[in-house]
Amino acid sequence: MTAPLGSPWSPPTGWVRPTPVPLAAPFGRRIGARLIDLALGLLVLWVITRFVPGDRLLGRLVLGFSALAAYEALFVLQLRATPGKLATGLRVAEVGRPRIDQVTAWVRGAITTVGTLAVVVTPAALAVMADSPEGLLVGGLVVMVAGASFLSIATAPLRRGAADRVAGTIVVPFEAPEVVDAATVDAEAETARPRPRTPWGPVATNLARRRARAARLDDAPVLVVLLVACVMAWTVDQPALAVALAVVWAVALVADETLRVARDGGTVGHRREGLVVLDEETGEAPTTGRAAARSTVLAVFWLFPPLLPVLWLWMQVSRTGRGPHDLVAGTAVVDLAPEEA
């Protein structure tokens, strides 16, 4: 029902409905905020080096991590933003809540600090990569974490990096609604980056696929035992045995994944997230051959961990929402939840 013109409930003449404020914080302001916080973080780390001797590297790392995590968490708890975000007109909001929970703030602060420390030590990591195989491994890991920290923000819808997605938060402009609800976040993310669609439904989001992959071993005890044995072999300095167990684990993974995808259309993780692996041409569960090809390519990435960032980046930037394992097998991971709802 429309109020009559001139009534106290009608808008004034010439009134224009305000445009809703986009939730996505501008990327330039995010970079500016991070640079300010990084500079202040470096100052904190410099103070720590004045009090902790250089031969106590572990002590420096523990104190540095604790100080930077507290910097992130306490400012967000008290002011809803770090100094860098305050200077650039941004704040942190917990999705669906008017205030940020303490656990949420500390989880976000810890994950953000991992990326910050990786960025800080990247020059040193690059310097040691050519010294030894161990230096190459450690340096490569540091560079990978630093790069992933940046790319998780640069490539994600609404600029929700890894820390925000894990903690359930989002960085928004000051003028955004006080309470940011999950439905609005999902709708704007879908608008910012529409999901590719197949004749059988929309392609699963990267977040849903990561959650499904995290639950991959929930009903695969043999794979769990083999993985633990492989880690233990590395721990007791038995590299040959560890490599052999890793190969056995990869073969078992291929066999298990092939069976589940061909028979059930996915793993327990897929089913838990409402996802299904389909042949892109027929919409049916893949044949055993296609499922085996998909599983083999996936196992290669898991068998050589340095390749995992390549897989992650591929999935982030892919316009079709399909990784190399899906492209090789001619499959797609489809989200059935919207259709079932």
UniProtKB/TrEMBL annotation:
GO terms for cellular component: plasma membrane. Its main location: membrane. The chain crosses the membrane at residues 35-52, 58-77, 106-130, 136-156, 219-236, 242-262, 297-315. Keywords: Cell membrane, Membrane, Transmembrane, Transmembrane helix. Pfam families: RDD. It is found in: Cell membrane. It is a multi-pass membrane protein. Signal peptide: none annotated. It comes from the Bacteria. Residues 25-168, 220-330 form the RDD domain. The keyword Transmembrane helix applies. PANTHER family: MEMBRANE PROTEIN, PROLINE-RICH ANTIGEN HOMOLOG-RELATED. This is RDD family protein. The lineage of its organism: Bacteria, Bacillati, Actinomycetota, Acidimicrobiia, Acidimicrobiales.
